[in-house]
């Protein structure tokens, strides 16, 4: 299925706001890059109406190579989680699609 | 970082645009993303991640106040899967002691 990409987002900024194509592309690029910079600095990102990007530190835990069965530890890591906001959740709930993705 | 801080940061790097323009742009991007998910379509941003919908089966829930059982119908919830670059950069932050 077709998915929304950065180029379509830039296209919409060009059409709806009249930004030139270069500016539109740069803003979309910066939008995602600034969120990444924040998260790599261990800072939460809160976009009201859309959702929050949170960070969780996970400690090392035992794991296994599923192919060989060999035990290998899974190293400590930091992961990003997304918590959708009320408004986004409500809009998505109304979607009555029949084919779960 | 909040939405308004994100707008300020982007505006500081795009001197030729007013903060009002950047504010409209950020709101338009977020609306485009919400709209896409609400019609059941995915979002794919290379190096950042992808958003899709996950289905939740119908279940029997309870009203925590009255204890009454309520039938909850199946529904979709937004899901985010971080991309490789984002995963790696966030982990490097951990290793750098941030």
UniProtKB/TrEMBL annotation, chain A:
Where is it found, in Gene Ontology cellular component terms?
cytosol
Q: Which residues form a coiled coil?
A: none
GO BP term, example: positive regulation of metabolic process
Q: Which Pfam families match?
A: Bac_DNA_binding
Keywords linked to the UniProt accession: DNA recombination, DNA-binding, Transcription, Transcription regulation, Translation regulation
Answer whether the UniProt record assigns the keyword GTP-binding to this protein. Answer: no
Residues annotated as region Disordered?
Answer: 55-74
SMART domains named among the record's database cross-references: BHL
Checking PROSITE patterns in the record gives: HISTONE_LIKE (PS00045)
Q: State the source organism's domain of life.
A: Bacteria
The record's GO molecular-function terms, alphabetically, read: DNA binding; structural constituent of chromatin
- Classification via PANTHER family: DNA-BINDING PROTEIN HU, INTEGRATION HOST FACTOR SUBUNIT ALPHA
Q: Which family does it belong to?
A: Belongs to the bacterial histone-like protein family.
Functional description taken from the UniProt entry: This protein is one of the two subunits of integration host factor, a specific DNA-binding protein that functions in genetic recombination as well as in transcriptional and translational control.
Subunit structure as annotated in this protein's UniProt entry: Heterodimer of an alpha and a beta chain.
Record-linked NCBIfam families = himA (TIGR00987), PRK00285.1 (NF001401)
* Protein name per its UniProtKB record: Integration host factor subunit alpha
Automatic annotation (TrEMBL), chain B:
Q: Does the keyword Metal-binding apply?
A: no
Described function: This protein is one of the two subunits of integration host factor, a specific DNA-binding protein that functions in genetic recombination as well as in transcriptional and translational control.
What are the entry keywords? DNA recombination, DNA-binding, Transcription, Transcription regulation, Translation regulation
Name of the featured protein: Integration host factor subunit beta
Show the GO cellular component annotation of the record: chromosome; cytosol
What subunit structure does UniProt give? Answer: Heterodimer of an alpha and a beta chain.
Q: Name one GO molecular function term.
A: DNA binding
Q: Which InterPro entries does this UniProt record tie to the protein?
A: Hist_DNA-bd, Histone-like_DNA-bd_CS, IHF-like_DNA-bd_dom_sf, IHF_beta
* Family indicated by similarity: Belongs to the bacterial histone-like protein family.
Which Pfam families does this chain map to? Bac_DNA_binding (PF00216)
Q: Name the source's superkingdom.
A: Bacteria
Which biological process annotations from GO are given for this protein? DNA recombination; regulation of DNA-templated transcription; regulation of translation
Where does this protein come from, organism-wise?
Answer: Sediminihaliea albiluteola
HAMAP family referenced in this protein's UniProt entry, alphabetically: IHF_beta
């Amino acid at each position: 299925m077709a998915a929304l990409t950065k180029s379509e987002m830039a296209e919409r900024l060009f059409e709806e706001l009249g930004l030139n194509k270069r500016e539109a592309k740069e803003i979309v690029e910066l939008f995602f890059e600034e969120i990444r910079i924040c998260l790599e600095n261990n800072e939460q990102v809160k976009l009201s109406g859309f959702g929050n990007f949170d960070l969780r530190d996970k400690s090392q835990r035992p794991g296994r190579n599923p192919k060989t069965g060999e035990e290998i530890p899974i190293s400590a890591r930091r992961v990003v989680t997304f918590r959708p906001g009320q408004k986004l959740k409500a809009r998505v709930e109304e979607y009555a699609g029949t084919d779960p993705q | 970082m909040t939405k308004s801080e994100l707008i300020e940061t982007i505006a500081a790097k795009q001197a030729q645009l007013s903060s009002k323009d950047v504010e409209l742009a950020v709101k338009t991007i977020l609306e485009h993303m919400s709209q896409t998910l609400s019609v059941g379509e995915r979002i794919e941003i290379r190096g950042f991640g992808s958003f899709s919908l996950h289905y939740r089966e119908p279940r029997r829930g309870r009203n925590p106040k009255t204890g009454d059982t309520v039938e909850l119908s199946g529904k979709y919830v937004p899901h985010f899967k971080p991309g490789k670059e984002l995963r790696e950069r966030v982990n490097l932050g951990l290793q750098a002691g941030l």
